[in-house]
Amino acid sequence: MAAPSSTVKVKITKNNFSAFSRRADGASKRVSIKMAALAAGRARGLAPVRTGALQKSIGTSVSLSRAGKSRGVVVCDSPYGLFEELGSKHNRPHHFVARAVHEIEPLIVRDFAGKLT
């Protein structure tokens, strides 16, 4: 039986990020793309490595919220990515995607604020 497909998504949003994005739709999309790429790159560096398949499965996507705001998303397409991120009864959690987003969070606010000035 094949392992179920899983996708790990971490949305790059914050309450204060929402306030900024109301004022700058174009900048929001550019920053979302850039920050999602930075977070994905960092997640690849933090991901546990055996074969490299998990690292290769990490990518980005940009989606629109229901309010029409751009949202950068880090995607891990590996069938076991969710178990590596959150853990299981046999595995401790690695939180590689969440840690990557947390590490670049100050860059998100700084870069976006710079686009508004």
Structure description:
With 117 residues, the chain is an alpha+beta fold. It has one domain. It contains 5 helices and 3 strands. The protein has helices spanning 15-23, 25-46, 53-56, 81-86, 96-116; strands spanning 8-11, 58-64, 70-76. A 3-stranded antiparallel sheet has the order 1-3-2. A hairpin with a 5-residue loop joins strand 2 (58-64) and strand 3. It is elongated and about 45 Å long. The relative contact order is 0.25.
How are strands sequenced across the largest beta sheet? 1-3-2
Number of domains: 1
Order of helices and strands: EHHHEEHH
Strand content: 15-25%
Secondary structure tally, helices? 5
What gross morphology would you assign?
elongated
Low-confidence parts, pLDDT < 50 over ≥5 residues?
none
Distance between the termini: 55 Å
Structure classification: alpha+beta
Question: Which key phrases capture this entry?
Answer:
single chain; 117 residues; alpha+beta; 5 helices; 15% strand
Give the gist of this structure.
The protein contains 5 helices and 3 strands. Helix 1 packs parallel to helix 5 and helix 2 runs antiparallel to helix 5.
List the helices and strands and how they pair.
Blueprint lengths: L7 E4 L3 H9 L1 H22 L6 H4 L1 E7 L5 E7 L4 H6 L9 H21 L1
Antiparallel strand pairs: 1-3, 2-3
